[in-house]
Amino acid sequence: MGSMAAAGRVFTGCYKHILMGSQNITGISTLLEKHLLVRHFAAVKLSKTEQKDPKKENLKPKSERKTDLNRHKPYGLTAWEPVDDVYRIQYYPKKVHDVETAIDMLKKFQQLDFTYPRQPVYIDLRLDMKLEKKKKVDPFVRIVHLPYPFMTTVNKVLVFTESPEEVAVAQKHGADIVGGIELIQKILDDEIQADFYVSVPDMISKLVPLKNKLRKKFPKTKRGSVGYNIPEMIEIFKTGHEYLVERDCYILSKIGTLDMPREHIAANVAAIIKDACTQRPVSFGPFVERAIICSATSESLLFNVGPFLPQITEENEKENQNVNN
Predict the structure, then answer these.
(1) Is 152 helix (H, G, I), strand (E, B) or coil?
(2) Which value, in Å, is the radius of gyration of the alpha carbons in the chain?
(3) Tens digits of per-residue pLDDT, 61-78?
(4) Among residues 46, 136, 154, 213, which one has the fewest Cβ atoms lying within 10 Å of its Cβ?
(5) Average pLDDT, stretch 125-133?
(6) Are 322 and 135 in contact (CB under 8 A)?
């Protein structure tokens, strides 16, 4: 009987202990807890082999954008092509046209909108500037002779030279302004302006005060505006078409007017693309990643640049090997 009474008291004590909730329910009394030794351990350090290496984490392959053309529909869009001629543009991938088809569409837009027929036509090219390793193609400025010029006036060219013989040659071949250091102050005061400035090499050191004024128009060897062949430079800059790389990898250039024949506009497009592709070895792949054509009042149309890109040949591969070596 005594043992049963003792067991009842223990059970009652445990039941009260559970109901209190705030005390320990492990069955160890608070008096014993005070006498228990508490050992404090330092945080375990990971060994060098177990520590995470941030460099290795960066080397993990990143998830590439999926572009599987064999899928029944593109990622994030409704279908590859709409089933009729009335659809929401944002639900379908933009169509890539042949350049001739795109030009015909621009002409049709002009007729439907009753806009100016002689409005300018532009191309927007995105370039792949990458070379081997971490090198890139430097942004460049080029002058190209279009097969079908569309400018109504010729460019105004100024020639810097102090040699009487070179002054006579420049004037004979159509230079608008010819002179030496006496022109510097007039240019700074905006008394004289020109579309292009060319110079002989001996004058470059004397033209330093004009660098901030002329900026991109300042004569440079890479641009072809510094040299001794004055007649050739005047001819190039008088009738040539200038384009340049902006925002690291984009070319935005006027290539004609909408009233020109389709074949003439397409020929000017081909001339600019082929000239731009000379700035990087062919073996690195297509230089032009994306091409857009539009007029001043129309929407932008993607067009295929494949027919205008240079093809890889054995000579191109040898040139690339020589560059790498």
Answers:
(1) coil
(2) 37
(3) 554 555 556 667 777 777
(4) 46
(5) 92
(6) no
Query: Residue 229 is encoded by which pair of tokens?
Result: 């062949």
Residue by residue, DSSP assigns 203-234 as GGGGGGGGHHHHGGGS--TTTT-BSS-HHHHH
CA distances from 246 to 141, 216, 249, 250, 253 (A): 9, 12, 6, 5, 10
- The DSSP symbol for 69 reads T
Tokens of 174: 């159509």
Q: Which residues contact 121 (CB under 8 A, 6 or more apart)?
A: 103, 106, 254, 255, 256, 257, 258, 260, 265, 293, 294, 295
Tell me how far apart the alpha carbons of residues 302 and 244 are, in angstroms, rounded to a whole number: 20
> Strand 157-160 relative to strand 177-179: parallel, antiparallel, unpaired?
parallel
Residue with tokens 């000579």: 315
Please identify which residue in the block is written with the tokens 């400035």. 197
Q: How many CB atoms lie within 10 A of CB 95?
A: 13
Q: Taking the CA of residue 233 as centre, how many other CA atoms within 13 Å lie in the half-sphere pointing to its CB?
A: 28
User: Nearest to residue 201, comparing CAs of 238, 165, 230?
Assistant: 230
Question: What pTM, to 2 d.p., does this model score?
Answer: 0.69
Strand pairing partners for 245?
251
Angle, in degrees to the nearest 10, between helices 262-276 and 99-113: 130
Q: Where are the beta strands (DSSP E) in 15-166?
A: 96-97, 120-127, 141-144, 157-160
Query: Rounded to an integer, what distance in angstroms lies between the CA atom of residue 90 and that of residue 188?
Result: 51
Average the pLDDT over each of 77-86, 151-160, 262-271 and give the range with the smallest value. 77-86
Burial 34-49 (b: 16+ CB within 10 A, else e): eeeeeeeeeeeeeeee
Q: Output b/e per residue, 56-82; b: 16+ Cβ within 10 A.
A: eeeeeeeeeeeeeeeeeeeeeeeeeee
- For residue 129, the number of C-alpha atoms closer than 13 Å in the C-beta half-sphere is 16
